[in-house]
Amino acid sequence: MDGIHDLGGRQGFGKVRYTQGATAFHAAWEVRANSLYAHAVRLRIFNMDEYRHAIERMDPRHYLTASYYERSLTSLATLLVEKGVVTREELERRAGGDFPLAAPSAPGRTNAEGRARFRLGDRVRVTQDSVPGHMRLPGYIRGKTGVVVGESPAYPFPDAHAHGVQSEDEPTYDVRFRSGDLWPNSAEPALIHVGVFQSYLEPAG
Amino acid sequence: MPDTDRVIQRTASVEERVDAVQAALDERGLKASEAVEELGHLAQETWIPENGARVIARAWIDPEFRKRLLANGREAVAELGLAMPKHHRHLVVLENTAQVQNVICCTLCSCTAFTIIGLPPDWYKDVEYRSRVVRESRTVLREMGLDLPPQVEIRVWDTTADTRYMVLPEQPRGTGGWSEDKLAALVTRDSMIGVARLGAP
Predict the structure, then answer these.
(1) Environment class of residue A48 by beta-carbon count within 10 Å: exposed (0-12), middle (13-18) or buried (19+)?
(2) Most buried residue among B59, B67, B122, B150 by CB atoms closer than 10 A?
(3) What is the DSSP string of A22-75?
(4) Could you tell me the pLDDT band of residue B88, with boundaries at 50, 70 and 90?
(5) Chain B residues touching residue A33 (CB < 8 angstroms)
(6) Which of A10, A13, A18 best probes binding to B when mutated, by most B CB atoms within 10 angstroms?
(7) Is residue B199 part of a domain?
């Protein structure tokens, strides 16, 4: 989905609030939120793609104002309700107030047909695919051409795995793009590498 | 007479919401409180940047290990007793040189090789870094205190699949012959993300 989470290249955000050696956690509830979602994954209540997608389904205003661990917590609670482990009413009664959850999911899809295998050095084009469900294709590479510089072992296909749809595992390719091709005349020179699932790629000749 | 049925709508605090989830899971026998203890300890005491620092220091002093690390990161870190989650099936180690600066990010969420380089800091997960580092990398690095000479090529790696990346920083000048432990103490998490270089001690 073309959600608010797909941030790469969006303009208007300010300076990174950077401090050297910043810690990962600032409050005890953050550690608990992180542990609880990891525990639910370990119990196979949901998988990592479902977890990521439930974050993406948050109301964009909530997404932008929530801290990372609040997004984590919202995804966890949304999936626990959707999987029938708890009800929203119970969570709100226990919490003593509203418990904002993510919006419902759209259907997923299985792998692309006739997927090509690529070798290092091959030129590839990213498909124009846009789906209402989960995908791991950042919008800034859609339709763009790059060069394969790496290949991973096969992974579950996120567009299916986040939705309980049957699919084959497929490799991801590290594809190198030039920033100037991604944002013509409006990017600083750099090589941008993106891990792209095989289903999102076609030969560029 | 007070209206006791009237519900004042307010959003529960994040602490109240975490409490609610934890208690609901505990009541169903899913041992959430035990998991919070166990996984909280792992996140704060086990998955720490010192792991990655050991990997980097070993790569600096052992050329054969360095080759293995660059060829297959996941297998090489296992030699040092370091594990990665099952779904991280591949660890790509990116070698910085005087002419090349590799930088890692995750524009879609906040993925990292957290068992090796530690859980990511806030700024890595914030919208500013995620939106800007792919498009304005040199400016972002400069704002973060890394002012690279113009001839240095910047290579950004966006962690959009379950392959994980870590940066192998250059060994600081003047540290030849140092022990592995002493070298490891120089390595910072931010240098393994690629937003900092290591200066001479």
Answers:
(1) buried
(2) B59
(3) --S-SSHHHHHHHHHHHHHHHTTSS-HHHHHHHHHTS-HHHHHHS-HHHHHHHH
(4) confident
(5) 14, 18
(6) A18
(7) no
Going by the DSSP 8-state scheme, the letter that residue B11 receives in this structure is B
In a domain, B172, yes or no: yes
Is B125 in the same domain as B75?
Answer: yes
Strand B163-168 relative to strand B90-95: parallel, antiparallel, unpaired?
parallel
B127 in the same domain as B58: yes
Q: Kindly state the tokens that stand for B102.
A: 């590799």
CA-nearest residue to A93 within chain B is B20
Active site annotation includes B109? yes
Decide if B111 is catalytic. Answer: yes
Q: Is residue B145 included in any domain, yes or no?
A: yes
- Please list the ranges in chain A whose pLDDT falls under 70: none
* A190: Cα separation from own chain's centroid: 23
CA of A37 to nearest chain B CA: how many angstroms apart? 10
Q: What is the largest CA-CA distance in chain A?
A: 60
Looking at the structure, tell me whether residues B90 and B173 fall in a common domain: yes
Per the structure, how many domains does chain B have?
Answer: 2
Q: How far is B146 from chain A (nearest CA, A)?
A: 12
| CA B65 – CA B55 distance, rounded (Å) | 9
Does B134 lie in the same domain as B94?
yes
Does residue B146 surpass a pLDDT of 80? yes
Question: B122 lies in which domain range?
Answer: 48-193
Q: In this predicted model, what pLDDT tens digit does every residue of A148-197 receive, in sequence order?
A: 999 999 999 999 999 999 999 999 999 999 999 999 999 999 999 999 99
Q: What is the Cα Rg of chain A in Å? A: 19
| Structural domains of chain A sorted by starting position, each given as residue range(s) with its CATH number in brackets | 1-103 (1.10.472.20), 123-203 (2.30.30.50)
For the question of residue B105 being annotated catalytic, the response is no
At B5, the pLDDT band (50, 70, 90 cuts) reads low
- Give the separation between CA A54 and CA A50, rounded to whole angstroms: 6
Task: Judge contact between B197 and B169, C-beta under 8 A.
Answer: yes
**B102, B132: one domain:** yes
Mean pLDDT taken over chain B: 95
In this structure, the answer to whether residues B131 and B179 fall within a common structural domain is yes
B5, B57: one domain: no
Residue A58 contacts residue A74 (beta carbons within 8 Å): yes
- Here the CATH number for the domain that contains residue B59 is 3.90.330.10
Residues B76 and B16 in one domain: no
